[in-house]
Amino acid sequence: MPINADYRGPGELPEIIPVFPLPGALLLPRGQMPLNIFEPRYLAMVDDALRDGHRLIGMIQPDISHTRDEARPELFRVGCVGRITQLAESGDGRYILELTGVARFKVIEEIAALTAYRQCKVDFFPYADDFVARKGEEEVDRTALLDVLNDFLKANNLKVDWEGIESAPNEALVNALAMMSPYGPAEKQAMLEAPDLKTRAEILIAVTEMDLAKKGTSGDTGLQ
C-alpha cells in the first residue's frame, strides 16, 4: 500500500472530512482510485486537503433516488475516505491524482460549511476492521471468484494478466475487481457496505452471474 501515514484505528482520522460525490465511484480500503480534478470547487478541496496536512478526501455516491435538488443531491450514508498518495499538475488547470483507500465511514450529518465543496461529520468506528489489512480473506471463495471472472472475460472478449491475478492476495483481488466492475451505483454501494470481504466477493459474483445470464438471454454479451 503506497501510503506514508500509518492509520491504526478510527481515532486517528478527523471527524469532519471533505466529500466528493461521484456516482458509480467505488473506493475501498487499500484500493487505488485515479481522479481527474477540474471543477474549481474540487480543485479548492484538494488544495485545502494538502494545506491542512491530512490529505484526506471522502468518496461517496450521490443517492439520486432520494434527491430533490439535482444541484445538491442527497448522499448515501456510507462512503470511504482516501489519502492523496499521488498528485500531478496537468498544465491546463487540472489535478491528476490518486487516492489510496483508508477506511469506510458512516455519515453522521452534513455540516454547513463555507467552502464550495461539501463536508460531513463522519464516524469510522463501525468499520474498525478496515484498518486491519487482509482481514477475513481466508473466507473468500477464490475459485468461484476466478471462475466468474473467466466467464466475464470470455463473454466480452477481454484478456487480463492471469499471472498477476493468480499472485494477488484475496483482499487486493476482491477489492480491485469490485472497484473496476462495470455495474451501477446500487451494486457498487452494496459492495461498499458489505460487512466483510467474503460477503463483498459473494455480491460481486452474484451480480456478475445475473448480468451474464441477462446478456446471454438477450443475445448481447457486451457489458457496458
UniProtKB/TrEMBL annotation:
Residues 17-212 form the Lon N-terminal domain. It holds the Pfam family LON_substr_bdg. InterPro entries: Lon_prtase_N (IPR003111), Lon_prtase_N_sf (IPR046336), PUA-like_sf (IPR015947). Transmembrane segments: none annotated. This is Peptidase S16. PROSITE patterns: LON_N.
